[in-house]
Amino acid sequence: MAKRIRLSIPLNPVPKGRPRVTFRNGKVRTYTPERTQEAQDELTALIYKHKTKMFAPYIPVKLSITFYRQKSKWSPKSDILPVRKPDLDNFLKLVFDSMNGVLITDDAQITTIRVAKRWSTNGHGHISIILEEDNAI
Predict the structure, then answer these.
(1) Of all helices (H) and strands (E), which one includes residue 35?
(2) pTM of the predicted model, to two decimals?
(3) pLDDT along the chain (137 residues), means of 10
(4) Which fold has domain 4-18+29-73+80-133?
């Protein structure tokens, strides 16, 4: 039977912010926005509990992930799905960075992705993750 890791992370999805650049004393300083860094640290800590299940290097991995978001009171009632920002790929980038070295050696191991963005039915955001060996031919 192929290896499988299933996680439900009780964290409202946060998109990965773009790196920021400042100039101080004539030097360029690049940094990650504080909100992004805090979210990544929290997500990594929650995922770290499952480090013993880590996939070995060079094993192809299939990722199925669903981001369940809290619906804002300002969102139109007609929005059945979360079609507005933040973008789905920015949610995914934060998860990739959090999983690297914890559940997978590197996100290059991921060969197949199924990803979705949905409204949470219970009013609390969370992230559902399934990682399994990819045996697709």
Answers:
(1) helix 34-48
(2) 0.87
(3) 89 90 87 90 94 93 96 80 90 95 94 95 91 86
(4) 60s Ribosomal Protein L30; Chain: A; (3.30.1330)
